[in-house]
Amino acid sequence: MPAETYDMVVVGGGTAGCFAAATAAQEGLDVALLERKTEDEGGRIACGDAIKGTSTFPEVIDLDYLREESFTNEGITLARFENPKTGEDLDIGFRGGNGAIVDRKRYGEVLLEEAERAGADIHYETVVRDVVQNGSVKGVTATQRGSVKEFEADVLIDAAGSLSLLQDKTDFDNTTFDTNVNYQQFCSAYREVIEIDEPVDWHNAIVFKPTAELGYLWYFPRTPTEINVGLGFQMNKEPMKLVEHLREDLRKRDEFKNATVKDKLGAALPTRRPYDSAVAPGYMAVGDAAAHVNPCTGGGIPGAAKAGTWAAEAAIEAISDGDVSEGALWEYNRRVQTDFGKRFAAMDLYNIWGGTYDVDYLVDIISAMPGQQLADALALEGTASMSWPLKIKTAIKTFGHWSTLFELKKLNEYATDLKGIYDDYPTTPGEFDDWQTRRDGLMDDVYELTDADPKY
Questions:
Q1: 205 by DSSP, 3-state: which?
Q2: pTM, entire model
Q3: Among 213, 327, 417, 421, which has the minimal tally of Cβ within 10 Å of its Cβ?
């Protein structure tokens, strides 16, 4: 059977894939988007549903339509940390506007609608089996409703999610593409959408609660009576029985009495820095497939939207020039790493550090720290100023943890230095090895400080 030929093939109809497909199709490229789900199931993805809004989204699709159709709670004003040891809550207000909760299924449907409206051909029930490669990647083979099909393209966009099958099938020898990836750099997550009888009194908050194995429970109100509840754990720790752990906590909460489950789904998520390079000849990885996820919170929607758009823009230019080599696609790497990539790489240091401590010990430290100072430190935005009375009070409360806090302060300095290194991400593949050597030197200092096993 002859191959179906396109300028670009995108595998995966999530945020990154849809933004990539819409971007390229709007510029006149012939684009195929391959989605393994049925059309009815399209858009259904395991997600916490929390988002800051669309202000950082590329204006590739109709963002007003996306918000109107899928944003169900735009009144999120704070994050609440529930301390399981003291029973107290730590409320941290949002800066720079409200957050929101989305109906992730409807959100995903709108993205697929918008990609199709832009001109992309969407192939549902299409499961990719292999990559076609001859020097550069030339396309994929897939099964579609029982039939084997081949899709040929100048550029393949891998938006197939965490631990993408495409990366197992592609030969990345003699490329810069990051293959230093293993399952221990990921987490396993599970979430349910539940309906309750009475509105919660915290419908303006996203609620977090620490769990064993450096994970957390979340309670995110889509509406006052419809709550996204879930949890996750890192795969380099002892496995957790996610469903049992979640149900046990739900039973303890009066507001969830008589709750009914409307939907449930699990997934794997990256809890690592973004791929050092997500390009190879004719091939680009975006979103979860390139670890474009905050490694501490699991949030990845805005980064995926940007990555999909930037990958498509680089591909459009490369296809127009008749050159889809790594060098021709490289600008996509640089845009990612000097934007959200540097922040996620810096946040990864806290994952490495936290993994060396018992969760109860970390909760003790969090309990003693002023909330806004802690939030600012973890956001790497510079710690808010503290008055002398607050400094003295904090010193007393944190007595016994001073060496750990000094270590955390030093780690924060390393995180700032690491962001500077990412600001200097190379403009060509020829400078890549030197950049990695510089970055890895700082990582050696981090491992020495934290006494952690190397993660990469």
A1: strand
A2: 0.91
A3: 417
